[in-house]
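Saturday, quiet lab. Running sequence design on the structure tokens for the scaffold JK sent over.
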């Protein structure tokens, strides 16, 4: 049978970022076993580049930022690689209206911010995120170096060299921090590692209408998967010239 092709015509009324994220049903269930449901959110140009001038922010637009903020507002925690935290200069995670909505629904004002820094990059503590009074931060490391929160509520979980794994970090977030839904914002190295360990349940992939070229990183960094990992397309949304693709892991 020959393949068939279907145009992505508009179906039903347009929705806002709140309704779009509601369709994911993030509160419906946790992940498999003793770990959170993990949603990865990444943006790349039409030619697959994940940064402009070293930052993902150059690819985005208000529509993309609204979806990311709404994802943050609906999860228990975010997981971001240390390089991405530093390069993107993380400060506050949510706007005041998102915090108010979380509090009204019985959640803490901010999701937990978690990162895995085996060598404990000293630049992390200089981020404005570590100075936010209502921010809870969990750092997983194999280093014995000290790090100060500068105002945030900081938990440092230390493992012996070579013993720290992604699975153990997710299990700790689930068991010791009550995290049932987790948003990973990258970067490409972390995303590849999560995919390799079959830990991604949902991927929200934003296609930015730009051609970047050059040597900027792609959506995933690292060795090729053999064989490639399959994805199942669940939904597609469009806002102006941006595409938002929702994939789940093919089982």
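Result came back. Writing it out in full:
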């Amino acid at each position: 049978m020959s393949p068939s092709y279907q145009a992505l015509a508009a179906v039903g009324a347009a929705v806002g970022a709140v309704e779009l994220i509601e369709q994911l049903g993030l509160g419906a269930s946790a992940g498999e076993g003793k770990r959170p449901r993990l949603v990865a959110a990444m943006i790349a140009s039409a030619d697959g580049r994940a940064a402009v001038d070293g930052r993902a922010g150059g690819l985005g637009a208000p529509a993309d930022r609204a979806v990311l903020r709404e994802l943050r507002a609906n999860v228990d925690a975010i997981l971001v690689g240390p390089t991405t935290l530093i390069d993107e200069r993380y400060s506050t995670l949510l706007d005041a209206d998102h915090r108010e909505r979380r509090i009204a629904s019985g959640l803490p004002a901010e999701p937990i911010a978690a990162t895995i820094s085996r060598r404990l990059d000293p630049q992390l503590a200089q981020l404005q995120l570590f100075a936010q009074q209502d921010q809870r931060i969990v750092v997983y490391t194999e280093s014995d170096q000290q790090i100060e929160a500068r105002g945030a509520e900081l938990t440092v979980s230390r493992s012996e060299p070579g013993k720290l794994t992604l699975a153990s970090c997710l299990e700790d977030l689930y068991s010791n921090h009550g995290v049932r839904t987790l948003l990973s914002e990258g970067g490409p190295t972390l995303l590849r590692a999560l995919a390799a360990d079959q830990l991604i349940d949902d991927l929200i992939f934003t296609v930015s209408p730009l051609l970047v070229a050059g040597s900027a990183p792609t959506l995933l960094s690292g060795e090729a998967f053999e064989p490639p990992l399959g994805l199942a397309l669940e939904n597609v949304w469009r806002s102006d010239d941006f595409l938002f693709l929702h994939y789940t892991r093919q089982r």
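Notes for JK: The CA atoms of residues 115 and 129 lie 12 Å apart. Residues 62-74 form the longest helix (13 residues). Ask whether to fix the surface positions before the next round.
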